UniProtKB/TrEMBL annotation:
It comes from Caproicibacterium argilliputei. GO terms for cellular component: cytosolic small ribosomal subunit. PANTHER family: 30S RIBOSOMAL PROTEIN S1 (PTHR10724), SMALL RIBOSOMAL SUBUNIT PROTEIN BS1C (PTHR10724:SF7). The keyword RNA-binding does not apply. This is S1 RNA-binding domain-containing protein. PROSITE patterns: S1. Keywords: Ribonucleoprotein, Ribosomal protein.
Length: 310
């Protein structure tokens, strides 16, 4: 990753903390061209970010706050929203005024280096570390390096359908993601290909067992109950069941050829639970192809990652 982690990752790293300890260490980090990270404590009336460096204050001028601010393609909310959060930066210099030293910082320069040396070299199918920054009904926004954000659409989060990304993620959660497409500097991500095939998920369950699940969808012909993020079963209709409820379900049968799990709902109840960190079946750094459906099934569900021009 060339050291271009999502913002917040390097905050407590020993190398980062050592560089912030003294003015001399900061000066050495500036000479070495080291990307550092600390917390923004204020955004002033001119939208400059003030950063607490421990041994002194730093300032990120507005136009150095993010790629696109100078060009007007990124709104200033991207700066205001960094207050009380970690920001990465290069030290570009120091200024003296009234006996006080202030470090001059550039977050934009760190982002440009991240794009040039890391993100611009990605191709569809590459798998990377990321951190959830915020959630919208249509998808999750994800920091993929130095505060550069990519979108993971809601339909790419899992095979089992959800109503909102908050059913899978919390802000600040660290995840793995696969690059689905690249258009210019817009990177779109997916996660469903990392969460296992139908076979891999179904292997955890057996006919005759009663297991836990989550009611995800109620249709005229039955109720879909999620057993894992990449596996749902269908139960017969039952009164007083609502989406989002926890469920105890009896597994009647598992049918790989039809890619179906038949269930009977034993009981449902209301319980709000925090999303668990994802479990990933794929642990490599690149995939060309993902086949979800089992060999016995005539229905093919797959993803083919095709290299595109940036």
């Amino acid at each position: 990753m060339f050291g271009y982690e999502p913002e917040g990752w390097r905050l407590e790293q020993a190398e980062n903390r050592a560089a912030l300890r003294t003015p001399a260490a900061l000066a050495q980090a500036a000479r070495a061209g080291q990307i550092l990270e600390s917390r923004a404590i204020l955004c002033d009336s001119e939208h400059n970010l003030v950063v607490n460096l421990g041994c002194m204050q730093g300032i990120i001028p507005r136009e150095e706050g993010a790629m696109g601010i100078r060009e007007g393609t990124v709104r200033d909310i991207a700066l205001l929203s960094r207050v009380n959060r970690p920001v990465c930066f290069y030290i570009t210099g120091f200024s003296e005024e009234n006996g006080h030293t202030t470090a001059l910082l550039s977050r934009r320069a760190a982002q440009e280096a991240c794009w040039r040396d890391y993100l611009s070299k990605l191709i569809p199918g590459d798998v990377l570390d990321a951190r959830i920054t915020h959630l919208e009904p249509f998808g999750a926004f994800v920091d993929i390096g130095c505060g550069i954000v990519a979108l993971m659409p809601i339909d790419a989060i899992s095979v089992s359908r959800i109503e909102h990304p908050r059913q899978r993620f919390t802000t600040g959660m660290d995840i793995r993601a696969v690059v689905r497409s690249i258009e210019g500097r817009r990177i779109t991500l997916s996660q469903r290909e990392l969460l296992g095939t139908w076979e891999e998920n179904a292997a955890h369950f057996h006919s005759g067992e009663t297991v836990g699940g989550i009611v995800r969808s109620i249709e005229p012909y039955g109720i879909f109950v999620e057993l894992t993020p990449n596996l749902a079963g269908l139960a017969e209709c039952r009164e007083s069941v609502t989406t989002g409820q926890q469920a105890s379900v009896y597994i009647k049968s598992i049918l790989p050829a039809r890619m179906k799990v038949k269930l009977v709902i034993i009981d449902t109840f209301d319980l709000k639970s925090k999303p668990e960190p994802p479990h990933y079946y794929f642990t490599g750094d690149h995939m060309d192809h993902f086949l979800y459906s089992p060999p016995e099934s005539s229905k093919i569900i797959e993803t083919v990652f095709t290299k595109e021009e940036n």
